[in-house]
Design brief:
single chain; 94 residues; mainly beta; five-stranded antiparallel beta sheet; 36% strand; DUF6510; DUF6510 family protein
Length: 94
């Protein structure tokens, strides 16, 4: 098994499903309640799906798979996924 990559590594594959860059999206873990950017989570790419784990409690927050049958996203371990809008990003820079 290879070492985990950081959550930035899943942003490209997830762009197949989402039209926004999710690396900066805030993920709230359903298990421990901690929140942080997706890029700060651990990605395990060796499973049949890409598996993202919470950096605080190591529980799975999401799984992503893409093959000839389609795209599948399991977010059972995610309590909340928050994506800043362009307006939110502009306001934070002001």
């Amino acid at each position: 098994m290879t070492a985990p990559l950081d959550g930035n590594a899943i942003a490209g594959p997830l762009s197949e499903l989402f039209a926004v860059d999710l690396a900066a999206a805030t993920v709230t873990c359903a298990s421990c309640g901690s929140s942080g950017p997706l890029a700060a989570h651990d990605l395990y790419p060796d499973a049949p799906a890409l598996v993202v784990r919470c950096p605080s409690c190591t529980e799975v927050v999401l799984r992503f798979a893409s093959d000839s049958r389609g795209i599948r996203l399991d977010m059972t371990g995610t309590r909340l996924l928050t994506v800043a809008t362009t307006e939110d990003q502009a306001a934070s820079l002001a």
